[in-house]
Amino acid sequence: MRTFEKIKKANDIRNLRPSEYEALAGQIREFLIAHVSRTGGHLASNLGVVELTMALHLFLDFPKDKLIWDVGHQCYVHKILTGRAQGFDKLRQYGGMSGFPKRRESNTDLFDSGHSSNSISEACGLVRARELSGGREKIVAVIGDGAMTGGLAYEGLNNAGQLKSNLILVLNDNEMSIAKNVGGMASYLGKIRTSTRYEDLKDDVANTLEKIPCFGEKLVRQIRRSKASLKQLMIPGMIFEEMNITYVGPIDGHNIQQMYEAFLAASRKNGTVLVHVITKKGKGYECAEHDPGQFHGVDAFDVETGKSLKEKQGDTYTDVFANTMNELAVKYRNLVAITAAMPDGTGLAEFKAKYPKRFFDVGIAEEHAVSFAAGLAAGGYHPVFAVYSTFLQRAYDQILHDVCLNHFAVTFAVDRAGIVGSDGETHQGIFDISYLTHIPGLVVMAPKNAVELKDMLEFCMTCPEPTAIRYPRGEAFKELTDFRAPIRFGECEWIRREGEVLFLAAGSMVKEAEEAARILDAQGIHVALVNLRFLSPLDARMLKDALSYPMVVTLEENVMRGGLGEEVAGKLLAGGYGGRFLPVALPNRFIEHGTQAELRKACGLDAESIAKLVRETMAGADMI
Asked: How far is it, in rounded angstroms, from Cα 614 to Cα 526?
């Protein structure tokens, strides 16, 4: 029997002989490469934590002991070691296993996670709960060096330094988040990673003093008792020790025995211990080792070459954004770009290369990015913060308080708005209409196609107020209509005016609305269609015209609560509307993983479902 096949459930690894560990690590890597190459997923990060995860599973007793994965995309090995290997055949597929920790999958997954820098705070809460209940379970949180750029990590560390009972924090240091890490913490960890001065001096002093008759051993013991002072002298900053957190490391993150012994020693200490391990992202697969950023999140690929098997598509909305930013930078010298550790994912890599002084990567720190943008705007520049919808919600207060309250001309390029797909609940961009459109003064737009995205970005450069453009993941629609109306502040675009049903569609839903209208036309139901363009402010003249239609339908790729439908309904009601109103939106719940097409259909946002709903509503059936 292969060693891999001996792992059927949690804790089975503890029944293996140490001589079997290396074989298991190799077989896990083979398994991951084979399966992720077929399903897609997060590969490089998981290849890098194979030995680390094995050492943690040897050290911990599940489910009594608690393990928290920051972000969570590196949990594949943990899933294998808890008996979920069979689920990898449908990894990240609709109805299949999630690519992130999921409480419903296993009692060894403590949190449904997908965002970063929160693990330390969660671990502190678990420690306090253990103290209150008198438990004795071990509690470990694994956080990457990339996540250490997030401010929440330091709020957690500040609290962790006050704990009196044991907490183990494992700093998984691979010098990467998705892109290369940036900033002061990355530089600091680099110094620790490469410095041997402290360890070398400690060994030399101990060896020399122990040779002194009578007093040597006593002196060594005294120095060990004062090791904090010695560390402070020899390693710059020692930020963790200064926060009352015991620092251990750096340790080889691919040496199982060394890590296991470090965890065991750390568990004997009261208070918080940070174990710093050095891992190699993509380890064991040459393509991923060579380009870990490219293999962070992948589609299905050819194992031999590492090349994607996904068919080449046209330009995505991210591509259109990237090209437009490069063009606008020539025309507008005050344009600057900001990303939160995702220059490639948001399309700013080429801007960075062309305009390095006008590009800023702040690391995984969305709150800082928004306040930083406010500072740039106050200094006379026009910042464009390119960010995924799901991550922008981390900076809600900064958007409201630092940017919008001050009426700064900052542009939020909200990528991956709407259904994202296989990353699931934590990554769907389905709340931004709700959390952006109610902020006073923030102009919120949604393009129906590639041309409108380009025009809207240019519009933002001349708008004196803060602006946000939400656009979806995937291929950008080229043309949905035969004409191109210019972008004017607060004005919609009428695509069709004749019909007994009026569709008010936002962004990506214009395409579905056009197709649904064609279906209904063939069935004798004629549809007028508006491309809203502006979600805030809504076109007041258009809303007045809408009062004359027997039925109004809003279409948005956002949750119902707080969305476009509720806003339009309120305005129509205030105008005395007496017709039938039908809001089409996503349900007020978290949307699981699957393809974008599967999820839209399951949620009733595809053209056929929309047409069916309209027919049923006109026939007097319930609207929802």
From this structure: 11
**42: helix, strand or coil:** coil
Percent pLDDT > 90 in the chain is 70
How would you classify residue 69: left for phi > 0, otherwise alpha for psi between -120 and 50, otherwise beta? beta
Q: Residue 497: what pLDDT?
A: 93
Residue 577 phi, psi dihedral angles, 5° rounding: -65, 135
Three-class SS state of 53:
helix
The two tokens of residue 206 are 């101990």
Q: Find, among 29, 118, 17, 13, the residue nearest to 62 by Cα.
A: 13
Tokens of 162: 């006050």
SS3 420: coil
Distance CA 110, CA 120 (A): 13
Residue from 51, 122, 175, 366 carrying the catalytic annotation: 366
Measure the CA–CA gap between 68 and 278, rounded to whole angstroms: 18
What are the residues facing 176 on neighbouring strands? 180
Helix extents (H) in 136-226 = 151-160, 184-194, 197-209, 216-225
Beta-carbon contacts of 534 under 8 Å, excluding residues fewer than 6 positions away, are: 443, 444, 445, 489, 490, 491, 492
Torsion on CA atoms 227, 232, 237, 243, rounded to nearest 10: 50
The SS3 assignment for 491 reads coil
The reported pLDDT for the residue numbered 555 is: 97
Q: How far apart are CA 380 and CA 375, in angstroms?
A: 9
Q: Nearest 10 degrees: CA dihedral of 58, 61, 63, 67?
A: -60
Integer Cα distance of 171 and 196 in angstroms: 18
513/84 Cα distance (integer angstroms): 41
Look at the chain and count its residues.
624
Distance between CA atoms of residues 433 and 437, nearest Å: 6
Tell me if residue 366 is catalytic. yes
Nearest to 282 by CA among 145, 176, 183: 176
Phi, psi of 351 (to 5 degrees): -60, -45
Q: Which residues contact 22 (CB under 8 A, 6 or more apart)?
A: none
Contacts of 174 (CB under 8 A, 6+ apart): 45, 48, 144, 145, 253, 278, 279, 280, 281, 292
- Out of 102, 130, 281, 454, the active site residue is 281
Q: Which pLDDT value is given to residue 199?
A: 47
- Taking the C-alpha atoms of residue 317 and residue 134, their distance in angstroms, rounded to an integer, is 53
Coil, strand or helix: which one is 167?
A: strand
Q: What is the pLDDT of residue 370?
A: 96
All residue ranges of the chain with pLDDT < 70 are: 176-237, 479-484, 621-624
Q: Both tokens of residue 516?
A: 């649904």
Amino acid at the residue 457? L
Alpha carbons within 13 angstroms on the beta-carbon side of residue 360 total 20
In the prediction, which pLDDT does 241 show? 83
Distance of CA 361 to the CA centre of its chain: 16
84, 130, 394, 416: which is the annotated catalytic residue? 394
- Rounded CA gap, 501 and 562, in Å? 23
The token pair that represents 361 in the structure block: 């990567």
Q: With left for phi above 0 and alpha for psi between -120 and 50, is residue 465 left, alpha or beta? A: beta
458 catalytic, yes or no?
Answer: no
Site of tokens 């709700």? 434
Q: Which residues contact 51 (CB under 8 A, 6 or more apart)?
A: 25, 253, 254, 255, 256, 259, 279
Cβ(561)–Cβ(588) below 8 Å: yes
pLDDT at 416: 96
